[in-house]
């Protein structure tokens, strides 16, 4: 009741106002009757009261409706992106509702959405700024190196048998690094804009992993790292995913296990049945990742071991691409690692 008094609806305002006016008129007629100025019987007084009440109610409702409609229209014009439609005219206002409370709620919701929009825009702006900064930082080092080698060669080094081939090779390595960075950047941007469509098909996990192992065997040999299936977890599973993109995920994870591996180490790949999906794990006994870096390794350009990553020509984008690809498949990726002991990366795939 007290809420109704505090927040009256337009209808109750009209009723109260009409009642007050009718009572005043009734009182006046009462005074006139006592002073014998008018002579109404009881029925006439009731009819007069009701007629005054209903006339006042209709007049009040009409003006209130129009007044409210004009005010609300102004507010809606500002907060709604769509135009007020023809059907939303003053007739559509329900006076028995607390119109002002409804508008207040809609304005509050609008303000909340606006705040969220602003927050998202701010986050995107920071992301864009950081991304540009990161890219230029990444490109600067190889460009600077290439510049140095070429200048030294032009300034006479070209005829120096001791350095000419070495510097040209180093320049070529840096060009290759630039190429990898640009390729990874392209992949990331296509994944982020959703341009990269998934070509989902059914394939066997074992065959794909065998192909990846075969491709990387030579690289692994340089560190005498053994690439193999995990004993007891080498059974083939048919999965549904984009085979080429999953090859890239596996490639990135196995390449990392070699890059951040220990000499004479090993990398084991295992498949685990998890009911509706399959968990694929790539486990190494390499250098591991410090606890404080675990959460950040999937961020683009983040490197836990900066010197080794750069030495090995890493773009710092590999795990970020891996995360994007698994998320595009609506699957998850996780990491367990102990510094000095090794790391295990696991991602899921939908079972056929
Ligand atoms: P990068 O090109 O530097 O290898 P990634 O995105 O692939 O970039 O990896 C990010 C960082 O995570 C690496 O710089 C490295 O410090 C760490 N990392 C990734 N995989 C491993 C691993 N298997 N063992 C230890 N550290 C790893």
Sheet-strand content, in percent, reads: 5-15%
CATH superfamily of the largest domain: Histidine kinase-like ATPase, C-terminal domain
Major pleated sheet: 7 strands, mixed
Which cofactors or ions or other ligands sit in this model?
Answer: adenosine-5'-diphosphate
Q: Which CATH class of the largest domain applies here?
A: Alpha Beta
CATH fold category name of the largest domain: Heat Shock Protein 90
Q: What average pLDDT do the residues reach?
A: 88
How far the N terminus sits from the C terminus, by CA atoms, comes to: 62 Å
Total strand segments: 7
Number of contiguous helices: 9
**Domains (count):** 3
**Coarse morphology:** elongated
What letter string, H or E per element, gives the SSE order?
HHHHHEHEEHEEHHEE
Low-confidence stretches: none
Class by SSE composition: alpha+beta
Q: Can you describe this structure?
A:
- By secondary structure, the chain is α+β, with helices and mostly antiparallel strands.
- It has three domains: 2-97, no CATH class; 128-193, Orthogonal Bundle (Helix Hairpins); 200-351, Heat Shock Protein 90 (2-Layer Sandwich).
- Helices cover 58% and strands 13% of the residues.
- The protein has helices at 2-6, 10-34, 42-79, 99-154, 164-192, 205-222, 243-259, 306-311, 318-328; strands at residues 200-204, 226-229, 238-242, 266-274, 277-284, 333-338, 342-351.
- Strands 1, 2, 3, 4, 5, 6 and 7 form a seven-stranded mixed beta sheet that branches.
- A hairpin with a 2-residue loop joins strand 4 (266-274) and strand 5.
- Helix 2 packs antiparallel against helix 3 and helix 6 runs parallel beside helix 7 (243-259).
- The longest helix has 56 residues, at 99-154.
- It is elongated, with a radius of gyration of 38 Å.
- The two termini are 62 Å apart.
- Adenosine-5'-diphosphate (ADP) binds at residues 252, 256-257, 259-260, 284, 286-289, 297, 302-305, 309, 314-320, 343.
């Amino acid at each position: 009741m007290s809420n109704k008094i505090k927040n009256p609806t337009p209808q109750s305002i009209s009723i109260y106002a009409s009642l007050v006016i009718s009572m005043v008129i009734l009182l006046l007629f009462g005074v006139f009757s006592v002073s014998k100025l008018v002579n109404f019987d009881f029925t006439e007084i009731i009819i007069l009261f009701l007629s005054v009440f209903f006339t006042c109610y209709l007049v009040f409702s009409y003006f209130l409706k129009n007044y409210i409609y004009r005010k609300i229209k102004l507010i809606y014009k500002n907060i709604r992106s769509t135009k007020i439609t023809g059907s939303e005219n003053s007739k559509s206002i329900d006076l028995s509702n607390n119109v002002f409370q409804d508008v207040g709620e809609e304005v509050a919701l609008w303000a909340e959405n606006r705040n969220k929009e602003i927050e998202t825009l701010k986050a995107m702006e920071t992301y864009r700024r950081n991304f540009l900064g990161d890219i230029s930082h990444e490109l600067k080092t190889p460009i600077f190196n290439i510049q140095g080698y070429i200048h030294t060669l032009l300034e006479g080094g070209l005829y120096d048998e001791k350095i000419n081939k070495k510097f040209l090779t180093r320049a070529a390595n840096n060009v290759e690094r630039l190429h990898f960075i640009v390729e990874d950047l392209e992949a990331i941007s296509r994944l982020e804009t959703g341009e990269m469509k998934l070509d989902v098909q059914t394939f066997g996990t074992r065959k794909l992993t065998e192909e990846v192992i075969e491709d990387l065997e030579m690289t692994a040999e340089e560190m005498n790292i053994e690439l193999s299936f995990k004993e007891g977890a080498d059974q083939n599973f048919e999965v549904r995913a984009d085979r080429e993109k999953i090859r890239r995920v596996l490639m990135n994870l196995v390449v990392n296990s070699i890059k951040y591996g220990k000499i004479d180490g090993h990398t084991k790949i295992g498949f685990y049945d998890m009911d509706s999906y399959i968990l694929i794990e790539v486990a190494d006994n390499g250098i591991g990742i410090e606890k404080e870096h675990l959460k950040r390794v999937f961020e683009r350009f983040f490197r836990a071991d900066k010197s080794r990553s750069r030495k090995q020509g890493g773009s710092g984008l590999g795990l970020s691409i891996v995360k994007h690809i698994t998320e595009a498949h609506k699957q998850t990726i996780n990491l367990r690692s102990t510094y000095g002991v090794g790391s295990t990366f696991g991602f899921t795939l939908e079972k056929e």
